[in-house]
Design goal:
The chain is of the alpha/beta class. The chain has eleven helices and ten strands. It has a six-stranded mixed sheet, sandwiched between helices. The chain has a four-stranded antiparallel sheet with strand order 2-1-4-5, covered by helices on one side. The two termini are 32 Å apart.
């Protein structure tokens, strides 16, 4: 089953094409990675898929529905969630409250009921807290359930952001540089978490510079160069592709980064 299809996607900023006539599809339950040099268009592509940017041309189809003109909120309601390269944590909230924010799409939104604290709202809040706590355990943050987010180490905050995205129960989870700035142990934890998320049935679209992680977790890899598709295929096929080696991987493969 295909969960995401991109057809002829183009995004131009003035005369510069950040993404140019790009087409690909993502299979449900897979880890589909997007790699390429800085400036290749990876984050622009994420912004197009999530609705932050409107494409200059092309279509985006999610689970059979054309979502090209839908808002970011509408796409979230249809099962698109993401994390960011730079942490987007609410430091004025506890860790648990951060994850609860991700449950807002699945919580009652009746203003009057909220104002008078009806039982249905109390139950929903209790259920949201229980679900958030379970998700924190799910991503390896059981020790931080009662913590303030501002007191948590950077590696834990990366996983907290993933827990918040998972709280929305997405069909597809877009992870933008989840291993950036992490030490080897934390990177291994992210590696294992990504694989377990896909194993549970949530499709993962991954942008990541750590090539050791990418090659280890990916079912499929798309290589971008100046916003265009340079190569696509399994990790083994991409690793051996001479165009990819010349344009991007090169000696960086040996060290695990590029």
């Amino acid at each position: 089953m295909t969960v995401l299809q991109v057809h002829g996607l183009t995004k131009a900023f003035g005369g510069v094409h950040a993404v140019a006539d790009l087409s690909f599809s993502v299979s449900a339950g897979h880890v589909h990675s997007i790699i390429g040099p800085n400036g290749a268009g990876k984050t622009t592509l994420f912004n197009l898929i999530t609705g932050v940017y409107t494409p200059t041309a092309g279509r985006i189809v999610l689970a059979g529905e054309d979502v090209t003109v839908l808002t970011t909120a509408a796409r979230a309601e249809r099962g698109v969630a993401r994390t960011f390269q730079n942490l987007q944590i609410f430091f004025n909230m506890s860790a648990l409250e951060n994850v609860m924010v991700g449950r807002h799409l699945h919580s009652p939104r009746r203003l009057l009921a909220s104002l008078v604290h009806l039982p249905v709202i109390k139950r929903a809040n209790r259920d949201a807290r229980d679900r958030a706590a379970a998700l924190m355990e799910r991503v390896g943050l059981a020790a931080y359930i009662d913590a303030e987010s501002g007191s948590m180490p950077y590696g834990a905050l990366k996983r907290l952001e993933i827990a918040r995205a998972l709280a929305a129960e997405p069909k597809i989870l877009l992870l933008d540089e989840p291993a950036a700035g992490l030490n080897p142990r934390e990177t291994l934890e992210i590696d294992q978490l990504i694989q377990s998320i896909a194993a549970d049935g949530t499709t993962v679209l991954l942008v990541e510079h750590n090539m050791k992680l990418v090659m280890g977790v990916s079912d499929h890899i798309l290589v971008l160069d100046y916003g265009r598709r340079l190569a696509e295929g399994t990790a083994a096929a991409v690793r051996e592709n001479p165009d990819v080696i010349r344009a991007y991987l090169g000696a960086g493969m040996e060290g695990g980064h590029a």
